[in-house]
Amino acid sequence: PASHLPADLGSGRAVVVTAHRRENIGKPLERICRALVRLSSLYPDIKFVFPAHPNPAVSRAVRELLRGRAGIFVTEPLCLYDINRLTRSAFMVMTDSGGLSEEAAVFGVPAVILREKTERTSLVRSGKAVCAGTHEDGIVRAFSRIADSPALYRRMKRAFDPICVRGASHRIVDILIGKYGEGKSGAAVKRKTDCS
């Protein structure tokens, strides 16, 4: 499929932004967008890439509030390949998506969670993510704290990843071989490093 990543994204630091949860539609989404406008002014060297969710209430608001803002790229929804490629190389992720915050953790990318509460508390406890809420000042503070502190940024990138349990695939293969054997060919199972 064709990529919906902006051609003029170029090189440099990029931040992936998503917001689509029902509780964020309306005033919370407006505050998130206002925070992005402030951040794009504070950090003109950073590109904020916001794949608009297909929900019309989200995409319409995002496009109206962010259209024409320097440093902010609102795109069509991205396929899994493109969002993962973008996330893997991102400087940071800002999202209300539990799934994307987990993917960021696996890729070693710090995440700012755009929710008042998250069920992904293990990410926050481990230091892989911070829960910023949906208020403009809180979002700007949380992002700036990470972006302005190389030491904190490095700690978040290197924090223990509670999502990716090292060695899990090896244990699963061992259990399956123990239960079913190695198959008719008897070929050895090639093991790859987890979460790489």
Description:
With 196 residues, the protein is of the alpha/beta class. The chain is 44% helix and 12% strand. It is built from 8 helices and 6 strands; from the N terminus they run βαβαβαβαβαβααα. The chain has a 6-stranded parallel beta sheet, sandwiched between helices. Strand 5 (111-113), helix 5 and strand 6 (129-131) form a beta-alpha-beta unit. The longest helix has 16 residues, at 27-42. The two termini are 25 Å apart.
Helices and strands: which structural class? alpha/beta
Count of helical stretches: 8
- What profile does the largest beta sheet have? 6 strands, parallel
Cα gyration radius (Å): 19 Å
Instruction: Please tally the β strands and state the result.
Output: 6
Nearest-integer average pLDDT: 86
Order of helices and strands: EHEHEHEHEHEHHH
- Strands of the widest sheet, in order across it, are 3-2-1-4-5-6
Categorize the overall geometry: globular
The poorly predicted ranges are 191-196
Measured between the Cα atoms of the first and last residue, the distance is 25 Å
